[in-house]
Amino acid sequence: MKITAIEITHHRLPLDPPFRAAWDTTPRSKFDATIVRVHTDEGLVGIGSGDLMLGFAGHEHLFIGWDPLLIERHYRVLSHIQFHYGRCWPLDLALWDLAGKITGQPCWKLLGGLSNRIRTYASSGTLRDPAGMADTAERFIARGFPAMKIRFQRGDWRDDIRALEAVRARIGDKLVLMVDCNQGWRLPADTYAPWTLKDAVAVGRELERLGVYWMEEPLHRGDRAGMVALRQKLDIRIAGGEMTREL
């Protein structure tokens, strides 16, 4: 089997009312997405979706004619393209989808998974007032979720703590709570600084008081020394790495 074509289409979904993402100071009135289809000479098609892949055009020939199951080879080519032209990972997803269809196996098995079950959590994508956040937590409980991730970034972290306190007071121990501090990265229009180590320690101690399972991205993604110091000062689990590019 050989790859015969890579088809990329761009789509725009209007958002009305606008989506006020916790990590974006500008309300979003549209959602842009890309769908990537990898075609083969035997009719199977792998599908992926994600970033716009605007820098990929002109590199299709690096994949056409190759065996789609040479995933490691394709990944290396993609990593080189991404270094020079931007993120093209939706193609990687499409190749894995295609590999699953070729082998008749789900991708989690191809990736070495040992279980067909995984614990899930619900995530809050928008900032709400304390009562509204507590209402959201109750809805997640009603839908059967065992855990919830709450996003911070209200400007003053003390306001974030008040929302978290409202949730804990309302639901008690019915949900495992995690917090995404949203300090690891910024969007182009956001010029305010991430938390200092002092801020992160203060927040972490409040999260420990409220029984939070983990705090995510409490410092800028490149502040490795700060993360080491934070780890030494707190007992709470620290999550991160989602946007790290400096390693």
Describe the structure.
With 247 residues, the protein is an alpha/beta fold. It has helices spanning 71-85, 89-103, 107-110, 130-142, 157-171, 197-209, 224-233; strands spanning 3-19, 28-40, 45-50, 122-123, 147-151, 176-180, 214-216, 237-239. It has two domains: 3-110, Enolase-like, N-terminal domain (Enolase-like, domain 1), CATH 3.30.390; 122-239, Alpha-Beta Barrel (TIM Barrel). It has a five-stranded parallel β-sheet, with helices on one face. A three-stranded antiparallel β-sheet has the order 1-2-3. The longest helix has 15 residues, at 71-85. It is elongated, with a radius of gyration of 21 Å. It starts with a strand and ends in an 8-residue tail after the last strand.
Give the SSE layout.
Elements: E1 3-19, E2 28-40, E3 45-50, H1 71-85, H2 89-103, H3 107-110, E4 122-123, H4 130-142, E5 147-151, H5 157-171, E6 176-180, H6 197-209, E7 214-216, H7 224-233, E8 237-239
Parallel strand pairs: 4-5, 5-6, 6-7, 7-8
Antiparallel strand pairs: 1-2, 2-3
Helix pairs in contact: 1-2, 4-5
